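Narrative summary of target 7.
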Amino acid sequence: MAKLDVKAFGLACGILWAAVMLILGIINIFCGWGSELSKMMASLYIGYKPTILGSLIGAAWGFADAGIGGVALAWLYNKLAKA
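Modeled conformation, tokenized:
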């Protein structure tokens, strides 16, 4: 069974989710789309709001959050794949 590279998977998850948070904020600024999702994410990520700075803060939180989650998921997968 193939093993996942824990660091690479965590980094990939972090980068992807950071991009989602950044794009969500920017789309909300210019188009008004995703305002309800932005409000929900603002309740999870301190400082996240539909502004340029808020979007960058959300991207940083998203990178850390999904990066840690990705590392944990890859580690757990590798442990269970051995069984």
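The chain has one domain: 6-82.
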